[in-house]
Amino acid sequence: MPHPVPLGWREWLSLPDLGIVAVRAKVDTGARSSALHVLDQESFRRDGAEYVRFVLDTGVHGQGPQPAEARVIDRRRVTDSGGHVTERPFILTRLCLAGQEWEAEVNLTHRRNMLFPMLLGRTALAGRFLVDPASSFLQGDRPEGQPPP
Question: Which of 16, 39, 86, 124 can pair with 104 through a Cys bridge, CB separation 3.0 to 4.6 Å?
């Protein structure tokens, strides 16, 4: 197995299946699953399968909310950091970070006033990355034209 790549506690990543070129992510080893904070979501059926249509704010300066849709692979109960339990839809999508691309399960949730639209949880990190909690953006600066975090 190759050596794990170092990450800071926050990084930029992309979600190409959703058309998201850059999203600010908090690398959260305390969270089991990864979460994408959506502004709005609506479930619908297509060819007998459940899908979800949603809108997200990527945290990219000057870029408005981005619409996206994905197939729902599961619905699970998730406990947030405040101990609140909610049922959330999970999607499977590609993540790109530090020159690596892989599929990961991501749950969709709406939380107000989030500084990071994406939480990258330990299941998606396992075996790929080591996290340095004293560092930020070890895998590159913000996208062109973005203000400092």
Answer: 124
**Cα–Cα distance, 101 to 88 (Å, whole number):** 24
- For the stretch 36-87, pLDDT in tens is 999 889 999 999 999 999 998 776 777 788 899 999 999 999 988 888 899 9
User: What single-letter DSSP state applies at residue 122?
Assistant: H
**Taking the domains of the chain in order of start, what are their residue ranges?**
5-36+73-132
Helix (H, G, I), strand (E, B) or coil at 3: coil
Q: At 96, give phi and psi (nearest 5°).
A: -125, 125
How far is Cα 52 from Cα 29, in angstroms, rounded to an integer? Answer: 27
Contact yes or no for 62/103 (Cβ under 8 A): no
Tell me what pLDDT residue 142 has: 62
